Amino acid sequence: MDVGFWDSIPIALVFAGIVLFTVFTFELGYQIGNYARAHSEKHSDTSPGPMVAGVLTMLAFILALTFNMAASRFDSRKQFVIEEVNAIGTTYLRADLLAEPQKSELKDLLRQYVDIRVEVSQNDNIDDAIRRSAGLQQSIWTLAVSVAKEEPVVLNSLLLQSLNEMIDLQEKRVNAAIRNRIPGSIWVTLAAIIALSMVTMGSQTGLVRTRRLMQVIPAVLAFSALLTVVVDLDRPSAVGFIHVSQQAMMDLQQSLQQAAQSLSR
Predict the structure, then answer these.
(1) What is the C-alpha separation between 178 and 7, in angstroms, rounded?
(2) How many CA within 13 A on the CB side of residue 22?
(3) Domain ranges of the chain
(4) What is the rounded distance in angstroms from the CA atom of residue 85 to the CA atom of residue 117?
(5) 172-211: b or e for each residue (b if 16 or more CB lie within 10 Å)?
(6) Helix (H, G, I), strand (E, B) or coil at 123
(7) Cα–Cα–Cα angle for 179, 17, 240, nearest 5°?
(8) Cis peptide before 101, with omega less than 30 degrees from 0?
(9) Global pTM value
(10) In whole angstroms, how far apart are CA 8 and each of 2, 3, 125?
(11) Is Glycoprotein among the key words of this record (predicted)?
């Protein structure tokens, strides 16, 4: 689950690629329209405007759908960060229910776990971060289960409950960031409709032999910027310009470090 080839492409190059693709398909349509006009014995006065409007409406619909999917997924990723922070914090507090030395050992493992969770958002090697998280999860779970077996009381079951929630949320974050992406079929459909829209617009300008660059260029740039935002929203947080804030996790990291320092004095 390392960052794939497409995700490794800088977002600036993604924007440039979308612009080039849009301009190319528009120019292709223009040449088609210009050729059709030059070889037509009788020019029709009927404007293809309604057809262009229909194609652009389809483009707007699929683009809105794609943006909504990416934005919804991005919001879920933000929410999962908050929930994971709360679960880790609760587990850390419930570790006080244990006797020494298990209490100190569990808290130390949780501090290491938080350090890794902070590094995840800054590390392109997602596989490595997931493996390290899973290794610490196993150590934490083994310790908690061993304590619960020795003293199977209700308080220890509360610790296991919060610990289980913490582990589940890590898996939810992985699914939201890596596996739950916009389907490839939607990207293909979007690319096809973009090409169809630009060719149709270009052919219209070719039929009337006016490029109207002052209107076309801003529209192409605006559309490309919007689509680039959708692409960036769909990417893992470790790449791109749009990131899920890890401030809550960093605040927890600082809080746990301060708690450890106060106990060591």
Answers:
(1) 11
(2) 22
(3) 5-260
(4) 10
(5) bbbebbbeebbeeeebeebeebbbbbbbbbbbbbbbeeeb
(6) coil
(7) 45
(8) yes
(9) 0.80
(10) 10, 6, 11
(11) no
Amino acid at 29: G
- The total of other beta-carbon atoms located within 10 Å of residue 217's CB is 14
Task: Give the integer Cα–Cα distance in Å for 107 and 252.
Answer: 13
- Distance in angstroms between the alpha carbons of the first and the last residue of the chain: 42
State the amino acid at position 32 in one-letter form: I
User: Hey, what amino acid is at 136?
Assistant: L
